[in-house]
């Protein structure tokens, strides 16, 4: 295993605690910065990831690391499930999700819960589908988190993971590294109280076992029919698997 990348280098807290702190710190500017820094492409990536579930017509969906709920709201409008439950480790992010839910009058369709992605607060075989958008990179123990997602899925249920990956081709790789290593932290410093969070982003992407390494981990915890679909020159990837 490579060295665990944490948001704050000098703290003794676990990665999990630090990630919760970091997202509490940046929750107010998170949505704006996300769209701004991905040049709005993250909205297209989300739609593509959600469309992976179109033919499955899941009734009950779990959105892990739901954050401020953007992915879940999009899934609600595209897939029309009976209900989505979002779980996240950061109370600050969930407060914003709850404000959005109330504003949109979607309380009966979308509920959120504070919880650990690697010890999901649900029974086994409960959900038709599980989604994770930009969350697996922040897991403290990736294998444990994936195994727990497998546990809460019904047999035949599907997992869809959307995550940053590392482009391989010139010049995209070089441009991407420059943007992520220099521009992203700079923008983060300007708009957010927590500049460190936006240096953590490229570091956590660089350390993430993307592509076939991640697929192998999905296979290892028991997912079948696993696939990796790179998007936009491999800046992002969609991973799918069936329980």
TrEMBL record:
Enzyme class: transferase
One function term, GO molecular function aspect: demethylmenaquinone methyltransferase activity
Keyword line: Menaquinone biosynthesis, Methyltransferase, S-adenosyl-L-methionine, Transferase
Positions contributing to S-adenosyl-L-methionine binding: 68, 88, 116-117
A Gene Ontology BP annotation from the UniProt entry: menaquinone biosynthetic process
EC number: 2.1.1.163
A Pfam entry, by short name: Ubie_methyltran
Pathway recorded for this protein: Quinol/quinone metabolism; menaquinone biosynthesis; menaquinol from 1,4-dihydroxy-2-naphthoate: step 2/2
Highest taxon of the lineage: Bacteria
Catalytic activity annotation: a 2-demethylmenaquinol + S-adenosyl-L-methionine = a menaquinol + S-adenosyl-L-homocysteine + H(+)
Xref: InterPro entries: SAM-dependent_MTases_sf, UbiE/COQ5_MeTrFase, UbiE/COQ5_MeTrFase_CS
Entry-linked SUPFAM superfamilies: S-adenosyl-L-methionine-dependent methyltransferases
Family from the record: Belongs to the class I-like SAM-binding methyltransferase superfamily. MenG/UbiE family.
Function of the protein: Methyltransferase required for the conversion of demethylmenaquinol (DMKH2) to menaquinol (MKH2).
Name assigned to this protein: Demethylmenaquinone methyltransferase
Taxonomic lineage of the native organism: Bacteria, Pseudomonadati, Bacteroidota, Sphingobacteriia, Sphingobacteriales
